[in-house]
Design goal:
Strand content: under 5%
Oligomer: single chain
Distance between the termini: 51 Å
Helix content: 55-70%
Number of domains: 2
Shape: globular
Order of helices and strands: HHHHHHHH
Number of strands: 0
Number of helices: 8
CATH architecture of the largest domain: Orthogonal Bundle
Largest sheet: none
CATH class of the largest domain: Mainly Alpha
Radius of gyration: 18 Å
Amino acid sequence: MHATQRQEYVDFVTAATPKLRRTAYLLTGGDAHRADDVVQQTLTRLYVQWGRARAADDIGAYVHRMLVNAFRQERRARWFGVRLLDRPPEPEPGGAPPTDAVVDTVAVRAALAAVPPGQRVVLVLRFYADLSVEQTAEVLGCSAGNVKSQTARGLAALRRQLPLADPTEVTR
């Protein structure tokens, strides 16, 4: 890789890594360590394929596809089910009490983690990564109709996980 290509890669990775990490975090159901592994695999493959990636029409969609593929591959790995701890570590004492926004964020992430993985991928790409139906279909290698149906099913599953206290609060 030439110095200019290497610098392009570094610039792209520097700008894209925070969003890729947040996307991977949501895909993995809130497991920051697995998310970092998925992003690292994605960026390593991106480095190897940088010549092809930089020539893509939409490099963002190209990298998101790589991220989803790395997530799927990581889920199929034998060690996926291995748990090193029987429960999550306790939070540090003395922290500020959570605000309503933090509680809502935690509840949404927990509910998203309970959505089936295929639907979770579609929801994260559509509503978090802000990809269009067509871009999401391209990333996943499926039809736009499939993305729409998985989105509808995923949103229904998410709503079942997050029932509203007062259903009259939401207006369309």
